[in-house]
# Entry
Amino acid sequence: MIPALNPAYIVGTGNTRFGRLEGYGALELMAQAAQRALDDACMSPAAVDGVLCGYATTLPHLMLSTLFCERFSLQPAYAHSVQLGGATGGAMLMLARELVRSGRCRNVLVVGGENRLSGQARDSAIQTLAQVGDADFEVPNGASVPAYYALLASRYMHETGLTEADLAELAVLMRSHAMHHPDAHLREPITREQVLASKPIASPLKLLDCCPISDGAMALVVSAESRRSPAVAILGAGQAHRHQHLSAIADTFNLGARDAAGRAFAEAGLQPGDIDYLAIYDSFTITLAILIEETGFAPRGGSAARVRRGDFSAGGALPLNTHGGLLSFGHSGVAGGMGHAVEAYRQLAGLAGERQIAERRCAFVHADGGVLSSHVSLILGRED
# Structure
């Protein structure tokens, strides 16, 4: 007889401010976010028996989870460092859920953060991120991450009719949400015209189509027991990995997000129509457009039309990234991607403060790493 699996709840979250945080290293930032998450969960460090730590490009340590535990005075029964690009945060939450459901751990601390803006030179950052390119066929041609996404954008826009003005709508929406978050990196309002007129980075992507580089950290606590009402459970999870490199993409209409989302929905026993909050990875405007459409929340080429109708606004039918996403809240490596899950939890739990929207019961969270290479989907549900 197969034993019943335990439920897994998110019971606490914490974050630092995002932006330029001079004088703080990766460990210090992670410790700040971790302490705030434990405080939010009303949990002592001694109760933590599992730790999952995302990689940090400014601290490429072989045993980062162990190093963090030593600095944060934790002695868990399970610790693991995870490295899956922008999908790392989602993958860590999925793994935390499995550890709790199996009974291996009771309380898992999930943490990521680094001083990517103030602690890394531009050339070093470019060299690190170049790893997403094929070492034989792509990197020698000098392409950067924005260039890889720009090439994908050109193809996708050709196939769907999506325009640069459509992408600009997503940048404006994310900034309008970040304006209401005190910890966001970019809070000044922008217009579609400003996005279109911003500095070209890699055609068709312009400066305001790209996320900023930030310092910052995020943390969540996943537990076998709910610690507040309403409780927020991780109801379903799924992954998909169809390629690593841009040159290996065979089908721009199935990059893997559809498969990951399908697996998460199947496990949760839910459908896209059950979702009333979206938290979707948005390293570039084209990333957000493709993921919204591939996961079934807009038709191909139709994501901007939903933005224009107000569907994804805070007062719309399906609010999207109400913290401002990577495009405006900021991108600090693993922590940037974790921000989507943190905000989804806070909205479901009624803890979003000024940003709190009308009661939400079910959130879809999606993260991707590489050039839409690794995908993780999560379904969060509110339980009263």
Q: What stands out?
A: The domain at 9-120+214-223 is CATH 3.40.47.10 (Peroxisomal Thiolase; Chain A, domain 1). DSSP finds twelve helices and eleven strands in the chain. The longest helix spans residues 145-160. The longest strand covers residues 231-241.
